[in-house]
Design brief:
The protein has 418 residues and is mainly alpha-helical. It has 15 helices and two strands.
Length: 418
């Protein structure tokens, strides 16, 4: 059902349009959950290889460094896409970009299924990254738009919970499903992708059924690549959010790239289901923590995230030195809690202070910096483990991340006392 109401275009330069037919609140409500499903499915798919890397490694005989190169191919695709297309949904429309991104994920899934060789694995991960770069900021902005259209007077609590749960929770669901399938079904390097290919096709249908929230401009703004700029509301708050995103995703990058090899190598645990369960525990704890902290202020979330992530990183390093699976798992959960809450505070800050016409661009900048955090530390681990042990490399990385977290805390404190 639709209603006839005067509306104003969301993007820059839009003009008042009399009696434009707009979807009813009920359609916005349904569309909100359609987009959440597509967001969750896509994020889960992009993390499917996490528990499978050691299987690829055993089959093809490549090193831990090659695992991080494969992971970096995905991250590079994400960052290129964020720079070139992460912001254009503000004037092209959310649905067009989401459908295009999902089509790219479908292509990646077909490549994984057709020929799971090293070369195809690199190509598929890069294509998957291209799709994900378009999707993350666009889906987050679309969820925010649909939430506001359905509940214009409500707080942003539902949006924050669902968007971050779909994003972070999806990264945990993918490895869990893939790990279980790889452990108990035939064709472990193909079957998980077949399952997610079906879900991705359903996601395209879900996006097609959701209402658009960006009206078409008569004159589109001039295109230019999107780089992080501190002109989305309060500059200091935006910079703090970018730093928080980098720090939180650095943890997620470690667990989705080299954790599986560490679990099978140093901890002597060959089960793919266990590897997937560990990654799920990290991201699942992040998603649960985001839900439980929904009523906390942004400053309280930031403080909790910084403290929990710091404690978790230190405990993780201890667990690696002790080669203890229980300590490693507990540390992963604590670190996940901290990173999840920290990232949630960043998303909430950016979405709340960005103007509607530039919300996609602001979120694209946040995700760009976050994916730099996802890729650079993991790639650095892969490089240095060619020369030193993975335990020593992780100890160094922990020290670097603790310095970054201290910097985020210092910037936030200066902002609060300004």
């Amino acid at each position: 059902m639709s209603t006839l109401t005067p509306t104003r275009d969301v993007a820059d330069g839009a003009a008042e349009t009399p009696l434009r037919r707009t979807p009813s609140p009920a359609r916005h409500h349904a569309g909100f959950w359609f987009i959440a499903f597509a967001f969750l499915t896509s994020m889960a798919f992009c993390a499917v290889p996490a528990p499978l890397y050691s299987l690829y490694q055993a089959r093809d005989g490549f090193s831990t460094f090659m695992i991080t190169v494969i992971f970096a191919a995905y991250a590079v695709g994400v960052m290129i896409s964020l720079i070139l297309a992460g912001h254009i949904s503000d004037w092209i429309g959310r649905k067009k970009i989401l459908i295009l991104s999902l089509v790219l994920e479908v292509i990646a899934a077909v490549l994984f299924i057709a020929a799971p060789t090293l070369e195809i694995l690199l190509l598929a991960r890069f294509i998957s990254g291209l799709g994900m770069g378009m999707l993350t900021a666009t889906a987050t902005a679309h969820l925010h738009d649909l939430h506001r259209r359905h509940r214009p007077q409500a707080s942003s609590q539902r949006f924050e919970i669902v968007s971050t749960a779909a994003n972070i929770g999806g990264l945990g669901v993918g490895p869990l499903v893939a790990g279980i399938l790889a452990q108990f079904v035939d064709e472990p390097l193909r079957t998980p992708y077949v399952v997610f290919l079906v879900l991705l096709l359903l996601s395209i249908l879900a996006v097609a059924l959701a209402p658009e929230t960006v009206e078409r401009n008569v004159v589109r703004p001039a295109y230019r690549p999107q780089f992080p700029r501190a002109n989305h509301g309060d500059p200091s708050r935006y910079v703090a959010a970018l730093a928080a995103g980098f720090a939180s995703f650095a943890v997620f990058g470690v667990f989705t790239s080299v954790a599986s090899a560490f679990i099978s190598g140093v901890l002597n645990e060959p089960s793919r289901a266990v590897a997937g369960l560990v990654v799920f525990a990290v991201f699942g704890s992040a998603a649960v923590a985001q839900t439980l902290t929904s009523r906390m202020s942004l400053s309280a979330k930031l403080a909790l995230g910084l403290i929990a992530q710091a404690i978790g990183l230190i405990t993780l390093t201890v667990g690696m030195h002790l080669a203890s699976m229980p300590v490693f798992l507990i540390a992963g959960i604590v670190t996940g809690i901290g990173a999840g809450v920290l990232f949630k505070s960043a998303v909430g800050t950016v979405a709340s202070q960005a103007a509607p016409a530039s919300r996609g661009a602001a979120l694209a900048g946040l995700f760009l910096m976050s994916y730099l955090g996802l890729s650079l530390p993991a790639l650095g681990l892969g490089v240095v483990t060619q020369y030193i042990s993975s335990v020593t490399a992780m100890t160094w990385l922990t020290g670097i991340l603790l310095v970054i977290l201290a910097g985020v805390a210092g910037l936030s404190r200066r902002r609060a006392t300004a």
